[in-house]
Amino acid sequence: MQLRPVTTVDTIEPERFKKEFYEPGIPVVIKELSKDWPAYTKWNWDYFKSLVGNKTVPLYNNVKSDAYTPINKADDYKTFGEYIDMISQGPAAWRIFLFNIFDHAPELTKDFTWPEHLMKGFVKRYPMLFTGGAGSITHMHFDIDLSHILHTQFAGRKRVLMFPYTEQHKLYRKPFEVLSLADFSRYYNEGAIDYDKFPALQKAQGYDFTLEHGDTLFMPAGYWHHMEYLDSGFAMSLRAMQPSLSGKLKGVWNLVGMRNIDSLMKKTVPIWWYKRKEKQVFANAAQVL
Known about the structure:
It is built from seven helices and 14 strands. With about 290 residues, it is an alpha+beta fold. Strands 2-3-12-9-14-7-6-4-5 form a nine-stranded mixed beta sheet, with helices on one face. A five-stranded mixed beta sheet has the order 1-11-10-13-8, with no helix packed on it. The longest helix is centred in the last third of the chain and has 24 residues, at about 245-270. It is globular and about 50 Å long.
């Protein structure tokens, strides 16, 4: 893989952000965007535990999906308090996904400001909190709704690998899915990537960087990302719809058309469907070699 650091700034003027990053679709890390938010100092594990410690949350492990894996199926369930106790004791490769803490504790929305000076179109009903224990992994994917994301890290460090959407065939994208067939776990360790099986990965051009407390990542719509929690931590994503009609329609197709087709085929002919998609994955990669 051909990787470089992401552009990092302390602060940024809206005009520069729009011209150099938002409009051309280039990621950037803004280190001080969140420092005036109450959440920057207020949010921690104990505070969340006091608010939603008794709520049951879906947990996800590091195992990649296979032919039988339903979309977004949880691997376990615990209360939020039990989960926090577990990951606070040391490395625990479990993360929470698709739990909207703001539905259960709406007062948290007063602890941050929507950065509308940078971009418009925020989906204010769905700010999302993502948490993970040290060693947990979010496998390589792109967000299905094709929204622009402002992703702020509030606790712990997280290593991030990112690629533009256009690199999808070099990343061995599964047809009708937002996932890569390749495994990028511990990609920064020598020999971790199987280039013999996935040779097109050597041509993929992307970014490798680490998010720390307070860092806000602008992730343009469709960007592929793989994240590894170096420490137990949590982050919040604010989503904004693309301004163009075509961008919105592509997101709707992914959510309503593509995902439902894939779910139906996984239920009815999982092995045939998986092998068919796998064959297409390698055929697409061969074309870029």
